[in-house]
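Predict the assembly for these two chains.
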Amino acid sequence: MIRLTRDLIDYHALTETVRRGDCGAVVVFLGTVRDLTGERVTVALDYDAYPAMAEKKMAEIEAETRRRWPVGDIILEHRLGHLEIGDVSVAVAVSCPHRGEAFEACRYAIDRLKELVPIWKKENWADGTTEWVHPGAE
Amino acid sequence: MMTVLLFARIRDQLGTDRITVADAATVGEVRLGLMKQYPQLAGIVEKSVFAVNNEFADDDVAIPHGAEVALLPPVSGG
C-alpha cells in the first residue's frame, strides 16, 4: 500500500497493518525532520509533490520490492506540507518471514523512494530564508 | 501550444505552476525551448528531468498530442 498524506503519519498503525502470522520480521523506517544540515540550522521543512506521478512511482517501488523479496506486506507513506523538527516525513514498514530480507526490502524501498519519487523539500532556515533542495543543482 | 507543469524552485522562480510553450515534437525540443525562453532557469532546467504522462522521459522521447508534460527538478523527498 502506498499513500501521500497531509496528516500525521501514524507509524504504530502502519506497523500493525503489516504484521502477519506468516512473517517473523517487521522492519519500520521513519524519516524525521533534522535540525542541522552541515552547520545550517533548519526550523521547518515544506514538502511538495507531483501527486499523480509520485503515487505511480511509489506503487512501482512497492511492486519491485515485492518481486525481489518475500514480502508479506509493505506500506510506503510520505507526508506533504509543513513539518516541524522531529516530525515524521516518510515511513516504510515491511514484513517478511525473516529479518534479513525484511531489512533489505525496507532499505531498498526507502532508497528507491528518495531516488525516484517526485517529491521536493524546502528548507526554512533559522535566519528566515527558505531554499528548495535540488541535489546537484544548487 | 502545450502546457508544462512546474514544481519547487522552478515554480517559485516563475511564480506559476504551469507555463505554455510552443508545440514540440520531443522532450529535448521542449527543454531547449524553455532554456531559450527563460535563460535564468537554464542551469536548473539542464539538471531536471521531464515526465510525459507521469513517466520519466529522455530528450529523444516523442510527445503525444495532449500529453501531460512536467518539468521535474532533482528530487529531495524522504
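The longest helix of chain A spans residues 51-68. Residues 124 and 131 of chain A are 7 Å apart (CA to CA).
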